[in-house]
Amino acid sequence: MYYVWRSVxxxxxxxxxxxxxxxxxxxxxxxxxxxxxxxxxxxxxTITLKCTEPSFSVTEESDSDCLMQFxxxxxxxxxxxxxxxxxxxxxxSLYEELPAKPEDRPEINFVLxxxxxxxxxxxxxxxxxxxxxxxxxxxxxxxxxxxxxxNPKFITKVQKNTANPVFNELFIFQAIRNTLDDRxxxxxxxxxxSFSRRHVIGRTLFPLKTADIxxxxxxxxxTEDISxxxxxxxxxxxxxxxxxxxxxSSTLTxxxxxxxxxxxxxxxxxxxxxxxxxxxxxxxxxxTINRKVESEIEFNDTFHxxxxxxxxxxVIISIAVYGKSHTYVNKHLLGRTHVGQSCPSPQxxxxxxxxxxxxxxxxxxxxxxx
Length: 370
Hints:
CATH architecture of the domain at 238-368: Sandwich
CATH superfamily of the domain at 238-368: C2 domain
Radius of gyration: 28 Å
CATH topology of the domain at 238-368: Immunoglobulin-like
Largest sheet: 5 strands, antiparallel
Distance between the termini: 44 Å
Strand content: 35-45%
C-alpha cells in the first residue's frame, strides 16, 4: 500500500507542476492524440534572471528523454560582487599550464615486410585502439585487401567486447615488384553483432610507396610499426530543420522537414521525437508518425511553442530520430540534435542565432546527427 500511495502522490505532484507551466485550454474539448499537422501549443513562463546561465553537459549515449545533467556546484550558490581579484597580484609561476589532451581517434597498427626474392608482401596486423563503441559494446574484426586487386582478401578473428583489440595475425600477398607503385593496402574494421552482421567502424588506405616499397627496390624492406587513422567514409545522418519566430503572436515554430543519409539496411521506418526543455526542465514531448525509409525522407511537420522573446533564452528543443525494424526488439536511436541559445550542439546554437537575427523569414539548416 505504501508503494501505491507513493505512486499516486508522485503522479499528482507532476500533474500540478505541468498545470502551473502550461495554459488551460479555452474549450472543454479533450484531445486523445495529436496529429502531425496539428498545432501544438507550449507556454513557457517568463522569469527574468540576473545571474548568468549555468553550464551543463549532455549524455548522448542515453536513449531516454533526459537532455542534460547539471552538476551541483556549491560555489555558484551565492556570489559576492564586492570581492575583486587583481590578476597582477597572482604569481603565474605557481600555476602550470597542463598540456592539451589529444583527441582519442580510432587507429590501426600494422607492420609491412616485402620479400625481394619471393616477391611477396607480408602484412602483420597488430592491433587497433579507440574504436567507436555503440552502447559500450563492440566486437571488432578486420578485413585486409591489397588493391587494385580485390582478391585475395583476409579476415581476422572477432575480438569480443573490446575497443582496443589485439590481432597479431599475418597475411601474405603475392606482389610483383613492377606493380608495387600502384598497390594500396586497404584495411577495414567491422563490428560484428550478435546476428553475425557486420557494420563498418572505419577504414584506411595506405599506398606501399609511402613506406619506400616501390618498383625500384633491390632488397628486402622491413618497416617499423605503422599507425593509421580509421576514417568512416559514410556520412552521418542529416536532418533538415526550420526555425521561425513571430513577434506579433510570440510563437516559435519548429519545422522538421527532411531526413537523409540513413544507411542502416535493417531500418524500415523512422520517426522523430521532439522534447521541449525550459530552464533545464522537461516540459512536453511529441512524436511524429512513422515514415518509410528512402534516400530522402520527407516529414514536413511543424510544432509551435508560445513563448515571449525574453523567455527564448531558456528554451532548448531536442530532436531525436529513431528507427524501427522487424529485427530490432525495441526502438533504435539513429541520432539526435538540439536547437537553442544555450544548447550543447554548435550547429544548433548557430541556427538559433540566425533565426534571432532574422525574424521575418523561416531559417532552414541541415543538422548532422550526433
